[in-house]
Amino acid sequence: MKTTKLLDAKGLACPIPIVKTRKAIAEIEAGEVLEIHVTDKGAKNDLAAWAKSGGHELLNYTEEDNVLKFWIKKG
What we know:
Layout: E1 5-9, H1 16-26, E2 33-38, H2 43-53, E3 57-64, E4 67-73
Parallel strand pairs: 1-2
Antiparallel strand pairs: 2-4, 3-4
């Protein structure tokens, strides 16, 4: 998947990954994809809800070696 920007939020606890995601998504254009890496397990529900409420699309989510990876398309 082609990403425009990568946000490394590993090791950060809620709500910091959401705060950093909000800032990063503001730096890309509509239709572009932000890839986010986090280790906070709560981010799974938080990022999905945040994307939906902000008019963005959660394209994919994976977990590898305790790192949650999200791809969000800016709305």
